[in-house]
Amino acid sequence: MDYRYIIFDVDDTLLDYRRAESDALKKVLDACGISDGERLAEEFAAICLMEWSRYKMDETADSEVQQDYHKRYYEYSVKRFEVLKERISTAMTAEEMSRRYLDAFALERGVLPHVRQVLRMLARSHRLFVATNGLAFVQRSRLKRIQSYFSHIYISEEMGMIKPERAFFTRILNEQGIENAEECLMVGDSLTSDIAGAASAGMHTCWFNPNHKQASAQTVPDYEIADLRKLLALLSAES
Questions:
Q1: What is the rounded CA–CA span in Å between residue 31 and residue 76?
Q2: CB 116 within 8 A of CB 94
Q3: What is the number of domains present in the chain?
Q4: pLDDT tens track for 37-83
Q5: pLDDT of 204
Q6: Which is nearest to 152 in space by CA: 4, 17, 13, 5?
Q7: Cα R_g (the chain), whole angstroms
Q8: Which of 102, 107, 120, 187 is the most buried (most CB within 10 A)?
């Protein structure tokens, strides 16, 4: 298939989410006068996983989650710091810690290996787009270093819907005047949000799987890569 449009997920596909998370937390702890960052970073990561699951933020296919995803996100962001405050001594409120964290996180723009090389090459022959679930002010800021490669950036908070909703992807098709969804290739690390969502709109999909996770029997991508550079060879072979 000769793809004309490539749509990219952001976190853990283009940008280094784990490092951004760690660096943003360090800035919050520094503001609290706390130096034991390494130990607390591990605890905070565990807290985030626990609260992310409790707020069902990973259940993006759930219609109730889709309806109030961003409200849940803000609540989740504060709650994780309420839990962290039980383990540290600080006068800063959980709300203030959350605000500082999101502000710091928005300035974390580190890209994953080979991202610039791949985007530079693909932009010569394809139209590139971003499709991301997240807060608009955070994601737009984080993408500043690579935003010039993209024709448009689609962020869930601005759209009022999230991946994997079919409407998210059909809106991209409609706004860009793309009549044949099969000319689009969605590249992302989530089988649910990226792969299943794009496929439901008729797009082809490429699962970015650098950690060699086990595939799902329910969601089968058209392609799977562990190194983003493989995307160049894949697209060259398909053209």
A1: 21
A2: no
A3: 2
A4: 788 999 999 999 999 999 999 999 999 999 999 999 999 999 999 99
A5: 99
A6: 5
A7: 18
A8: 187
Instruction: Examine the fold and report which residue of 81, 105, 129 is the final residue of a domain before the chain moves on.
Output: 105
DSSP H or E run through 26: helix 17-31
CA 146 to chain centre: 15
Render pLDDT for 18-48 as a digit per residue (tens, 0 to 9).
Answer: 999 999 999 999 999 998 778 899 999 999 9
Does this model's pTM top 0.90?
A: yes
* 230 and 120 together in one domain: yes
Are residues 119 and 221 located together in one domain of the fold? yes
- Give residue 159's domain range: 5-15+111-238
Q: Examine the fold and report which residue of 105, 133, 163 is the final residue of a domain before the chain moves on.
A: 105
Q: Indicate which CATH number applies to the domain containing 143.
A: 3.40.50.1000
Same domain, 159 and 202: yes
Question: What one-character-per-residue DSSP string does 112-176 give?
Answer: PTTHHHHHHHHTTTSEEEEEE-S-HHHHHHHTTTTGGG-SEEEEHHHHT--TT-HHHHHHHHHHH
Residue 218 amino acid letter: Q
Nearest to 141 by CA among 105, 111, 101: 105
Q: Is 14 helix (H, G, I), strand (E, B) or coil?
A: coil
| Residue-wise pLDDT tens digits, 157-197 | 999 999 999 999 999 999 999 999 999 999 999 999 999 99
